[in-house]
Amino acid sequence: MTTTTSRSPRRRTVVALAVVLIVIIAFVVRLVDIQVVNARDHVDDSLSMGLQNSRIEYASRGSIVDDNGVPLATSVNRYDVQIDPMLAAKGVTTRDDDGDETTTAWPDLAAQIAGVTGQNAADVQKIVQDAVADNPESRYAMIAKNVSTEQYRALVALGLPFLSFPPQAGRMYPDGAVAGNLLGFVGGDGQALAGLEAADNDCLASTNGKVVFQQSRDGVVLPGTEVVTQPAVDGGTLKLTIDRDLQWYLQQLIAEQVQNTGSLRGTITVVEAKTGKIRALAEYPTVDPNDPTATAPEDRGSRAFSSPFEPGSTFKALTTAIGLDSGSYTPQTTVTASGREVLDGDARVSDAFSHGPNVYTPTGVLIDSSNVGISKFAQMIPAQTRFDYLQKFGMGTTSAIDFPGESGGILHPVQDWDKQTFFNTAFGQGLSVTVPQLVGAYQTIANGGVKKPLSIVEGCTAADGTVTDVPSTEGTQVISTDTAKEVSLMLENVATQGELASKIAIPGYRIAIKTGTGEKVDENTGAYKPDAYFTTMIGFAPADDPQYVVAVNLDEPRTVKSSAATAPAFQKALTQVLKSYRVIPSGTTTPELPKFG
Fold it and tell me: Which residues are in the Penicillin-binding protein dimerisation domain (predicted)?
């Protein structure tokens, strides 16, 4: 009897445990069914009830940096300030340590927000009032767009639960207008609109990501539900050949020279002779990409690339090189030229100064910049030969840079040349070039006759480290090395024997230069504009081992209308270039060549 009685509690315990175990197993089976077997169905059910949400993971647009890696354009975080009107209208209730509650009404909170965003408190207050008036259950309104990181942090510090701050991509140019005409700019929507920002958008553009998550009815994100369905990919880094410090200095210099001469605008360009890399391309007026609308639309791009001009006497060096290289004449060949002559086909050619017959060598023609003299040398060269060489020098086509809006200039086919055009093209009239085309031609002479493709981009480094967009460095032999050396020595004698010799000399360095004054075409009439010129000085140094080509170009200088207007800026620019790159001085002096035969 005792034995039977003692066993009953054990049976009841076993039965109870069995029941509990069965219940647990049932729950486990049910959980497996819900979370594993039929998980997809339940997720779909939750999605159908509106519990799924998503957000954008913003990626950053790539940076643009100079040759030394210094940022010229970067992405910065900006934030929109969004509000839940329904919650905001109720104010905020807080509880102190003693349990006492304090409610801050919406008008007071609106004043706190406005104090950070810089808005009027009444305007902020009205945004919520209008939203609630339209819909008492309104959950969204925009307080401000694109506030700074500092403002964002101050708003977060207010601890207002009804504010949210979705980030927006912003663009910043740390040095303002430095290289602004080259960099271009982006719009408020982040779209590239001009310059390298647009030309290299494939490199710089980012891809925003997407995160999907589940949230409760009151908007709380459910832990563990966030899934990255599309990863954010930052844009690549675009490295330029530009040197920021040199660019800054030359922009100050050209601004000063434009203002001192009363010019409409101007440029200074620096190209590495042996590589074709543009180390600086300064323009004035310029544009600050942080605020492009502050600049006139016509000045927001790069006129160096987009606005061709008649190069004037700078072209005489090319005509000389073509004649020598084609064997049409030698450095010792002479022509007799007066200050004004009527040539074949009743073509009339005049020099800028009056003089009687001079027996000119090619060097003398370049030193005195004689239009008549170079025209007579050009008569020795077949027209088609000259045209073909000019094309090889890069005239008539855009540069390898292919900058947005770049012009190819004007080089008419030979069959369209009349007698006057035949002679005019020998001294830089009847055609037009851009600054890059002209510096590219002189780079060819400075580099032993090998034309290197101009470049302004070193390459693009993607987020994963892949490097693309590296420009070609393959050169083209346009004229022989001997011809290049002969023309270079002639241009050195322009620097030492020309009328501007004292104004452009740099102690210790041999310099090769040529000046040019080209007439300006009136865009409205198509005829030459009276008393209006483009003046240019271009050259390279050290002439005995050329390292850098420098060109200064002014549009309609008024105080000095000849090429002398460019001399001060050229001398200062070339001096700074030689100093910046620590170029070793020449160890010899320029051999003097005869002007006359």
Answer: 58-189
